[in-house]
Design goal:
By secondary structure, the protein is an alpha+beta fold. The chain is built from five helices and 13 strands. The strands form three sheets. Strands 1, 2, 3, 4, 7, 10, 11, 12 and 13 form a nine-stranded mixed β-sheet that branches. A two-stranded antiparallel sheet has the order 5-6. Strand 5 and strand 6 form a beta hairpin. The two termini are 21 Å apart.
């Protein structure tokens, strides 16, 4: 475990850096020396699910894991928007329109394949050497560059207005918050994520992950 990978099921309301710090603390104590620990792709604080943590000499190979396809399950709310695209932002009522299931199926089809996204300003992307979310929190205007991503599969799991649950198999670099917002625009209702869980990275599945609690981490 001091030179390899650990699959962690990240809890909500914790940053990815917080997960790394806690794992580093436990491993360093266990091995009686400072263990190098890193992650291979962030999850939003409100999100849960699979993280690949690299340790020791494997940290030099972190980039090998960061560009892999991922599968998410997300619950979004229709009729409202959020300044952050999730539960942590300022919520605004947009529309009381109630799309049918057929409306949603039609809308989802437009987001399959290669699409263009503009990542959220509240993200870890660096703009001129600074994290976008740091600039946004300072009230500065952030010009986010568009990017090409691929949505391999996008499936409606459940729908009971205003809640829509989706499963999305996407390429690395895809923002599910942005996908939810864009679906809301397509439906003319607005939308934002209330739940987000990463369940797979390439061939690694959430069922293989361990919790922080199982490592003795309770804070």
């Amino acid at each position: 475990m001091d030179n390899g990978i650990i699959l962690i099921d990240k809890p909500d309301h914790m940053t990815s850096f917080g997960v790394v710090a806690r794992v580093r603390r436990v491993l360093s104590k266990q091995f009686g020396k400072k263990i190098k620990v890193g992650h291979t792709g962030t999850l939003d604080p409100f999100a849960t699910g699979l993280m690949i943590i690299v340790t020791g000499k494997e940290c030099r190979n972190a980039s090998n894991y960061s560009k892999l396809d991922k599968i998410y399950e997300t619950k979004i709310v229709l009729g409202k928007t959020s300044t952050t695209g999730d539960t942590e932002g300022e919520i605004t009522d947009i529309s009381d329109k109630v799309p049918t299931k057929a409306d949603i199926v039609t809308a989802l089809e437009k987001f399959k394949g290669e699409i263009t996204q503009i990542p959220p300003i509240f993200s870890a992307i660096k703009i001129d050497g600074q994290r976008a979310y740091d600039l946004a929190r300072k009230g500065k205007t952030v010009d986010m560059p568009a990017r090409q991503v691929t949505v391999f599969e996008l499936e409606m799991i459940d729908y009971e207005y205003p809640y829509l649950t989706l499963k999305a198999h996407v390429s690395s670099g895809t923002y599910i918050r942005t996908l939810a917002e864009d679906i809301g625009k397509e439906l003319s209702t607005g939308a934002y994520c209330v739940e987000l869980r990463r369940i797979k990275i390439a061939d690694w599945d959430i069922s293989q992950a361990i919790t922080l609690k199982s490592l003795g981490i309770v804070d």
